[in-house]
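It is worth pausing here to work through a concrete case rather than discussing structure prediction in the abstract. The textbook approach is simple: state the sequence, then state the predicted structure, then interpret. We follow exactly that order.
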Amino acid sequence: CEEACVFLKKGGQIAIGRVERFLADWEASQGELKIPKMPRKTGRSVAIVGGGPAGLTVAGDLIRKGHRVAIFEALHAMGGVLIYGIPEFRLPKAIVHREVEYLGKLGVELVTDFVVGRTRSIDSLLEEYDAIFIGAGAGLPWFMNIPGENLNGVYSANEYLTRMNLMKGFLFPQYHTPIKDHKRVATMGGGNVAMDCARTALRLGAESRIIYRRSRQELPARLEEIENAEEEGVIFDFLTLPTKYIGDENGWLKEIEVLKMELGEPDASGRRRPIPIEGSETILKMDAVICAIGNSPNPLIPQTTPGLKMGKWGNIEADEATGKTSRAKVWAGGDVVTGAATVILAMGAGRQAAKSIHEYLSSL
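Step two, the predicted structure:
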C-alpha cells in the first residue's frame, strides 16, 4: 500500500511498515501477551517441516483451529532465515524468540535438531500426522564457479550470516564458532542479502565492498537497504565482474581478479545485459569474499520423498493458491517453492496453505 499511497503526489508516503513495527514493539512492552481462548481439539494433526517464516505462520494459524501441530526444525533454534540470516541490526532476535515462545504457549510442539529426510522421512511422518507442510526454505547457496572458490576466506552468504547471527562468531571465546578477523571484504551480488553481508562486515571492522556486474540502477535490493549501505560506508564497485580468486601459499584468499563491464540490451529479467570489456582486468587486494548471488532449496527432502514433483531449479512445485503439492496430504510454501524471496511472501504462502490444510482436515 505504500507504493500506491496518494501521499506520493506530495513527495512521500505513510510508512506502514514502521507503523506496524511501532505497534508490535508497543504491545510487547506492555507485558506478556495474553493467551486467547483456544478451540476444542479436533483430533487432527499437522507436521510442519521447517521453523522459518512460512512454517511459523502455518503453525500459528492451525493451532488456533484446534489441530495438534508440531514443527520440525533442522537447526538448534526456531526462526529459519529470521534467526540465522537477517542481521540483528535489521531484526532484533528478541522479537523472533518472543514470537516462537508465544507459539509454544499456544501448544505448538517445537522440535529442533531434527533433519527431515535424515532423522525421519516425509513418508514416515505421514504415518503419524494427517497432513504435512514443507517450509524448509532455500538453504543451498549458489557460487560463481570461478577458480579459487575453495580458498579459505571464501564464504557463501549463508555461512557468513549464520556464523554471525545464529552462532555469534563475533563473541568468541564466549561462543565457540569464531570467524577470522578479516580486513578487506568483498561481497558478490546486489540483493538484500548482499547488503546484509556487506553491512555486517563493516560492523566487524572491515573495509567492505560490494562487487556488482551491473550499475546502481539495476541493483535488485530495496532502495532503503542500498541507501543504508551507502550511508554507513560500504564501497560499491559497479560494472565489475570477479573472474578469479587468488590465494597465498597457505591457501588463504589474498586477491581477486576482476573484469570491467558495460551494459548492453535488456535480457529476460528486463535489466540491461552486462558485457565484458576486453583487456580491462585488474586486481583487488581482499582477504575475504562473500558470495551472495542466490540460493536453491536443499535437495534432501525431494531425494527422500518419491512422487514429489520438482521444478527445474530444485524447488517443490505447489499450487499457488493452496500450496498443495503432487503428493496427497503434503503442502509446501515459501522459499522451498519460490526460491529465495522475501519473508512476507513466505508468510503469505503459509497463510494460504494453512487455510487449505484446515479445509482438508475439516473434511475428514
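Step three, interpretation. Residues 160 and 290 are 7 Å apart (CA to CA). Residues 343-363 form the longest helix (21 residues).
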